[in-house]
Specification:
- Keywords: Oxidoreductase.
- InterPro entries: FAD-dep_OxRdtase, FAD/NAD-bd_sf.
- One of its GO terms (molecular function) is oxidoreductase activity.
- This is FAD-dependent oxidoreductase.
- The structure is a single chain.
- This protein is α/β, with parallel strands linked by helices and 388 residues long.
- It folds into two domains: 214 residues, FAD/NAD(P)-binding domain (3-Layer(bba) Sandwich), CATH 3.50.50; 143 residues, D-Amino Acid Oxidase, subunit A, domain 2 (D-Amino Acid Oxidase, Chain A, domain 2), CATH 3.30.9.
- Helices cover 29% and strands 27% of the residues.
- α1 packs parallel to α6.
- The chain is globular, with a radius of gyration of 21 Å.
Length: 388
Amino acid sequence: MFSHSAPATVDAVVVGAGLVGACCGYELAVRGRSVLIVDRGAVAAGGTGTGLGAVAVGHQPGPLLDLARHSRQRWDGLADRLAADLDHRPDLGLTADGAVSVARGTAAAKQLSTLAAEQRAAGLAVEQLSDADLAALAPGLADDVTSAVRYPGHARVAPVAATLAVLAAAVERGAVVVPAAPVAAIEPAGTGMRVDTAAGTVSTGTLVLTAGAWTAPLADLASVRLPLRPGRGHLLVTEQLPQPPGQTVYESGTDAAPLVLAPTGTGALAIATTGTETGFETAVSVPVLRRLAADAVRLMPALRAVAALRGAGTLFGRTPDELPIIGADPQHPGLWYATGHGAAGVGLAPATGELLADLVTGATPSLDPAPYAPGRPGLAVAEPEADR
């Protein structure tokens, strides 16, 4: 499925072979564009492959929730769409089992209640849970959990399997995928770009940067100061539990990044947070993993007797206004972005790919693109050089 060399000329080059990049490349190929997808390393080796695979919908009402709901709908039909290009219906691991958001203490419960009311007003399905409901869905939570709501639209997927399936369908549409082909230089070439990669030099009218946290260094090659900073997530995976939660549990109303307890489908539990920023450091932080384990035990005391089998860290790109960047660079013809999704890239990938491809091809998008535009006011805040 993968190639070792790049064509000299294509309509579009997508840099980044995570799920967002795969969806962008696929949607462009569906619209008849010749596409090259390259990555500095292996396919889905970044945030896609080290995350939880969450397709979350429990966002604050506004552009992020709009994109998430649109993407959630696209996930439901994605396997059937891909099957039209493949000789089988791929298993994307889509499990629509919902998620629970819990609050501990009066202040957190009030925040959760306010958020849930705003989400319902925006048309999102949110269920208030009784103590008995919560005990059935997520047994063993701490006694100080004072409120809980459920998002029935939340789902999870197998992110690596999904990425491979989308890339395979893109290849069937004529796309070329070249992993282990880092980009060394980006130069303007008329109304497009010339891209030097380890697999060859490519001329293109459309260069799409979809490399998550690594998009900012790529933009630097094009002399663009992209306001994107690296965020760092940590993950612990436990041994099998005798009675794991039936669905993902988020701790709501905390000042820090939310704690997430997610079933893996094998009886184990994935414990995650996305709260640290340490530049482009990718090594796992043992102190952070210890704090993560302690926080998990406080939320679910029974985990004190459960062994953690492995830990992992990941990087993702964050913007000043916490919204992704999707669209054309206003100052550099031929340069496009689909990045800055934070830890939500997997869930938002199908809608992102569709929106990006609609904008590139001049089609009328099904979502208002303005809130995600690279030139929006929310991106005016420049990040300190130390964060880069």
